[in-house]
Write a structure and sequence with these properties.
The chain has helices spanning 13-23, 25-45, 82-91, 94-100; strands at residues 49-56, 62-69, 74-81, 101-104. By secondary structure, the protein is α+β, with helices and mostly antiparallel strands. It has one domain: Double Stranded RNA Binding Domain, CATH 3.30.160.
Length: 105
């Protein structure tokens, strides 16, 4: 007896992504980072508070970004390197940086 497929699911979706990763891993990685940053930026635009803390100094600087939306009981933690965090901060308005971001060491 065959298992019934869930409506709206596609068998080949993951295979396509794996193929893209195999053909051009750098482009795939860059698109993934852009999607993550867009998602974080959307959360910030919707009123999320953000706590940024440096968690690793050597050999590469890494930062933990904790996002919280109490109205949705939503928390999210993302690890970013220095360049990616800089890109996020450049995309964020000064008002949001002052009101919604907290930086800690």
């Amino acid at each position: 007896m065959a298992m019934e497929r869930i409506p709206g699911s596609f068998r080949h979706t993951n295979q396509t992504r794996e193929f893209e990763l195999y053909v051009d891993p750098i482009s795939h990685s860059e698109r993934r980072v852009r999607r993550i940053l867009a998602s974080i930026q959307q959360d910030i635009d919707e009123g999320c508070t953000a706590l940024v803390r440096q968690i690793l100094y050597q050999p590469r600087e890494l930062y933990r970004l904790e996002l919280e939306r109490p109205d949705l009981s939503y928390q999210r933690t993302t690890i970013l390197d220095r360049d990616t965090l800089t890109t996020l901060l450049e995309q964020t308005s000064e008002e949001a940086l002052r009101e919604q971001f907290k930086f800690r060491e």
